């Protein structure tokens, strides 16, 4: 094979990403590459179907029309090719349809797990849950969490109810089922990435100095009185005095968990830019056109009042986070026993199983490398679509394999991808547009321009 370089294309919407990918695929076929040794992946079944259709259309058109054949031959860098040549490629492609590695990333990952279940720690067959099946399994797990528990599970259910109370502290009560669904949607993937309880709502993991959370209620009561005295003696304008008194009244009536009143929010905003100066004598606050100077006693009083509110809110958030972790842990325990252990896996489970970071010991890491070694022997060319939506964890699954291709000195293998960071839409599943530049720069630092960069803007 000649004239096929490693290429990463940054392409704007409508600039011909599908054209580039399908032309690349045909170019590989024309240079004698077997279709089953080419991996072409995108994110959706629809995009994968369009990719397949375009390859068929390109080859079929070049088979029937001399003009189309000449255009395609020039596009793939082999101007000598004729209709009969493309007819041969079309037949080859169709013959290989059952063996094609052309689809979504999820389906490709699933195919790896199906090929190496024992090496990945799975016992025998497993079922890959589609969206509807995964939702049904979630419903069953949630039902177990909020329906009557068996005698041996009474303590577990009691723990769950306490966790739920902590996780919903200070919020408007909603139907339990709806709240649980929200927790699973928002936080479950985070829990699977970081299941350690010490990482959830742990103040010591966030602040080295725990002073921010300390509250002396007696001092705060005295501080309110000191601030009232300062307002009475130093604020004469009715409009400004009304603002101060509304703030003080809001402080007196506010309780943790209740919404922060606008008067308190406004005061926090006024002080936030100069928080480190609030202890100083002659601390200044601006109200409209007037500037008011607080003496040492009144500024210290204001600091204590605001610190109390912030501290209690932070403590409440920590408590809620701990409660959410407990709920997710309970959910995961039931889900693992009732779903995963029975061989029912979601696409997310599959990706997690393949993540090399999970193979931490020497023995298991060797098993994982053996899988990569066997896969590497079956794949020569990589074509990745919408690369801006690839996550770092997905890249970790590909990394060893693509490293082998890019560093291969035989010039018989290739890596090709297209993406547009402006169209990144999969942040919710950890797609990271920064990955595109990091990989390009990383490979090209190791070897000058080993990967060619192209840009399409029209």
* The CATH C-level class name of the largest domain: Alpha Beta
Q: Architecture of the largest domain, according to CATH?
A: 3-Layer(aba) Sandwich
The CATH superfamily of the largest domain is known as: P-loop containing nucleotide triphosphate hydrolases
Q: Indicate the percent of residues in helices.
A: 55-70%
Protein described:
By secondary structure, the chain is α/β, with parallel strands linked by helices. It has 3 domains: 6-124 and 360-456, P-loop containing nucleotide triphosphate hydrolases (Rossmann fold, 3-Layer(aba) Sandwich), CATH 3.40.50; 133-205 and 317-345, no CATH class; 211-315, no CATH class. It is built from 17 helices and 10 strands. The protein has helices at 17-30, 45-64, 66-75, 83-95, 105-115, 131-146, 154-167, 176-193, 203-206, 217-234, 238-253, 262-272, 296-338, 347-354, 362-376, 392-406, 434-446; strands at 6-11, 38-42, 101-104, 127-128, 283-287, 290-294, 344-345, 381-384, 414-419, 451-456. The strands form 3 sheets. Strands 3-2-8-9-1-10 form a 6-stranded parallel sheet, sandwiched between helices. Helix 1 packs across helix 2 (45-64), helix 6 (131-146) packs across helix 13 and helix 10 packs across helix 13 (296-338). The radius of gyration is 31 Å and the shape is elongated. The two termini are 30 Å apart.
């Amino acid at each position: 094979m000649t004239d096929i370089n490693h290429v990463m294309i940054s392409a704007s919407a409508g600039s011909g990403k599908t054209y580039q990918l399908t032309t690349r695929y045909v170019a590989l076929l024309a240079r004698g590459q077997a279709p089953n040794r080419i991996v072409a992946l995108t994110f959706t079944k629809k995009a994968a179907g369009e990719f397949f259709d375009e390859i068929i259309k390109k080859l079929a058109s070049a088979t029937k029309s001399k003009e189309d054949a000449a255009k395609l031959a020039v596009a793939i860098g082999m101007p000598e090719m004729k209709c009969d040549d493309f007819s041969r490629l079309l037949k080859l492609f169709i013959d290989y349809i059952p063996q094609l590695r052309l689809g979504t990333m999820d389906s490709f990952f699933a195919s790896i797990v199906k090929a190496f279940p024992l090496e990945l720690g799975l016992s025998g067959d497993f079922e890959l849950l589609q969206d509807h099946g995964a939702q049904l399994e979630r419903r069953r797990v949630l039902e177990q969490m909020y329906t009557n528990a068996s005698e041996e599970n009474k303590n577990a259910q009691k723990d769950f109810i306490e966790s739920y109370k902590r996780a919903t502290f200070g919020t408007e009560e909603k139907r339990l089922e709806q709240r649980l669904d929200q927790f699973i949607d928002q936080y479950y993937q985070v829990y699977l990435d970081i299941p350690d309880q010490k990482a959830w709502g742990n103040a010591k993991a966030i602040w080295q100095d725990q002073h921010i959370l300390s509250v002396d209620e007696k001092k705060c009561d005295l501080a309110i009185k000191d601030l009232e005295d300062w307002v009475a003696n130093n604020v004469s304008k009715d409009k400004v005095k009304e603002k101060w008194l509304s703030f003080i009244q809001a402080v007196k009536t506010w309780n943790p968990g209740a919404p922060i009143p606008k008067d308190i929010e406004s005061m926090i905003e006024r002080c936030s830019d100069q928080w480190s100066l609030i202890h100083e004598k002659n601390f200044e606050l601006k109200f409209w056109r007037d500037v008011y100077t607080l003496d040492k006693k009144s500024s210290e009083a204001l600091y204590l009042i605001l610190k109390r509110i912030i501290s209690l809110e932070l403590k409440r958030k920590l408590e809620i986070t701990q409660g959410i972790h407990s709920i997710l842990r309970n959910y995961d325990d039931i889900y693992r026993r009732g779903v995963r252990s029975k061989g029912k896996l979601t696409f997310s489970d599959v990706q997690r199983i393949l993540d090399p970071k999970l193979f931490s010991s020497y023995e298991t890491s060797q098993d994982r490398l053996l899988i990569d070694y066997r896969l590497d022997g079956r794949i020569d060319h990589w074509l990745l679509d919408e690369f801006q939506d690839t996550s770092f964890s997905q890249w970790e699954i590909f990394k060893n394999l693509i490293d082998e291709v890019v560093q291969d000195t035989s010039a018989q293998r290739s890596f090709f991808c297209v993406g547009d960071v402006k169209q990144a839409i999969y942040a919710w599943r950890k797609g990271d547009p920064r990955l595109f530049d990091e990989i390009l720069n990383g490979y090209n630092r190791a070897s000058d321009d080993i990967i060619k960069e192209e840009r399409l803007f029209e």
